[in-house]
């Protein structure tokens, strides 16, 4: 993650915009000589317009539009219409990207990538064995479909992390899709499944909050300007707030604190910082979860408590090897079925201790880089912050691990760096 090229490329990208890089076309006209007459207001406006036009043309020429376009759909939680089987839009887009990636060669590899591939193979094989041998459970979803989607997600993560897919283009497209979702939601076009809370085509406000929190941090990781980074995190933080998801707000707050305070510290300091953040969030959830605008969440919290009680009972009945994919649900006395609101419990019920240990350990080891010798570039530190979002929100949300947000974060962790120029050779992949 701390490949020195990333810092150099970041400086080069800044020089490109100021006309300072030798041998490359400048996007801003060179500074006038001391004796030249100053530009008029109209001249400055024309210069800014020409600069914006040139930058737009450059972005279009450098960005692989297939990856960008498909990434816009990665946040969509609804199924493709008109098909006899349920195929989520995000998995369709993911399948297209994986198919394209198979025609390309990897651009780089890392020790983290090798670890991830081993863990992915272990997880898929183990889930296959457990799911195929487990007794059928009434109400469980089809484990075969779940396994196919899991394999597709893991393949997508590997291809994005090796450079077969242009990761910057994926992040920018993903962020663009989230912004479009918000625009269409407030324009009255996207679904309003949770009344005034922002959900749109994501389909669930908690899932939307998670994607906005992660998407903002990852988009900030592609920026070279501190102002652009802060503005990006602030804008997506506002969108996270509009989802009304208290869990993702808490996770985003913890990630910002981690990014600002702990990413540059030693391992011991980061461990104590993580423990302190954990207890602080536990206090906030226990004492401040229904203040202010959240005072009307009593009914929601009562239902959550009932679901948590049912989850605890199911955990006690689950064998150590797990019950198989698609079994992480509970049935209430009213007959309603709910998915787990705890991703750690989901991993254990579906795949036992093996799945729980493998997924959480790989996420923490690759995402938090506990043995790194230096903080690395900003993209690496932003990735750490996004990992904090995942680990925190997984305590209260049932689908955090093994999702598209998780996949993008780990792909960044396996990537040597995220300068904007990462996609400048998209039209000419290496042999």
What does this structure look like?
The structure is a single chain. With 431 residues, the chain is mainly α. The chain contains 15 helices and two strands. It has helices at 4-18, 41-62, 65-72, 89-101, 111-133, 143-161, 167-186, 205-221, 226-242, 246-262, 267-287, 298-317, 343-368, 378-393, 404-414, and strands at residues 329-331, 337-339. Strands 1-2 form a two-stranded antiparallel ribbon. A hairpin with a 5-residue loop joins strand 1 (329-331) and strand 2 (337-339). Helix 6 packs parallel to helix 15 (404-414) and helix 8 runs antiparallel to helix 14 (378-393). It is globular.
Task: Give the helix/strand layout.
Elements: H1 4-18, H2 41-62, H3 65-72, H4 89-101, H5 111-133, H6 143-161, H7 167-186, H8 205-221, H9 226-242, H10 246-262, H11 267-287, H12 298-317, E1 329-331, E2 337-339, H13 343-368, H14 378-393, H15 404-414
Which term fits the overall shape?
globular
Q: Helical stretch count?
A: 15
Mean pLDDT: 81
Computed CA radius of gyration, to the nearest angstrom = 23 Å
Helix content: 55-70%
Distance N terminus to C terminus? 23 Å
How many strand units? 2
User: Which stretches are poorly predicted, pLDDT < 50 over at least 5 residues?
Assistant: 1-37, 421-431
Largest sheet: 2 strands, antiparallel
User: Helix- and strand-based class?
Assistant: mainly alpha
Biggest β-sheet: strands ordered side by side in the sheet: 1-2
| H-E string | HHHHHHHHHHHHEEHHH
Task: Tell me the β content.
Answer: under 5%
């Amino acid at each position: 993650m701390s490949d020195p090229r990333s810092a150099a490329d970041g400086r080069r990208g800044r020089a490109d915009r100021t006309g300072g890089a030798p041998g490359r076309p400048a996007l801003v006209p060179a500074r006038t000589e001391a004796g030249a007459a100053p530009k008029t207001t109209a001249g400055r406006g024309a210069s800014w317009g020409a600069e914006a036009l040139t930058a737009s043309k450059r972005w279009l020429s450098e960005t692989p539009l297939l990856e960008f376009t498909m990434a816009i759909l990665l946040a969509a939680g609804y199924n493709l219409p008109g098909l006899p089987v349920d195929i989520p839009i995000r998995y369709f887009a993911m399948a297209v990207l994986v198919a394209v990636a198979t025609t390309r060669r990897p651009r780089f590899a890392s020790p983290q990538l090798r670890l991830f591939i081993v863990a992915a193979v272990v997880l898929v094989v183990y889930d296959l064995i457990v799911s195929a041998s487990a007794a059928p459970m009434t109400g469980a979803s089809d484990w075969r479909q779940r396994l196919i989607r899991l394999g597709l997600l893991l393949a997508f993560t590997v291809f994005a992390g090796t450079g077969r897919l242009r990761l910057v283009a994926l992040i920018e497209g993903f962020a663009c899709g989230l912004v479009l979702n918000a625009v269409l939601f407030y324009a009255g076009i996207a679904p309003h499944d949770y009344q005034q809370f922002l959900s749109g085509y994501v389909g669930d406000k908690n899932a939307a909050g998670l994607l906005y929190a992660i998407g903002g941090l990852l988009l900030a990781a592609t920026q070279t300007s501190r102002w652009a980074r802060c503005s990006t995190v602030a804008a997506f933080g506002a969108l996270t707030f509009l989802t009304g998801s208290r869990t993702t707000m808490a996770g985003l707050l913890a990630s910002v604190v981690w990014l600002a305070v702990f990413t540059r510290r030693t391992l011991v300091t980061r461990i104590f910082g993580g423990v302190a953040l954990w207890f602080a969030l536990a206090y906030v959830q226990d004492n401040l979860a229904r203040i202010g605008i959240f005072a009307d969440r009593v009914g929601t919290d009562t239902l959550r408590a009932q679901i948590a009680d049912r989850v605890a009972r199911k955990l006690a009945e689950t064998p150590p090897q797990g019950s198989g994919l698609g079994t992480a649900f509970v049935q209430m006395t009213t007959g309603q079925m709910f998915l787990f609101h705890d991703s750690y419990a989901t991993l254990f019920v579906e795949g036992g201790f093996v799945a729980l240990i493998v997924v959480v350990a790989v996420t923490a080891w690759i995402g938090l880089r506990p043995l790194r010798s230096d903080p690395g570039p900003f993209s690496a530190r932003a990735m750490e912050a996004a990992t904090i979002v995942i680990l925190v929100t997984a305590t209260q949300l049932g689908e955090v691990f093994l999702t598209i947000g998780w996949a993008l974060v780990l792909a960044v962790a396996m990537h040597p760096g995220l300068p904007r120029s990462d996609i400048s050779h998209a039209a000419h992949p290496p042999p």
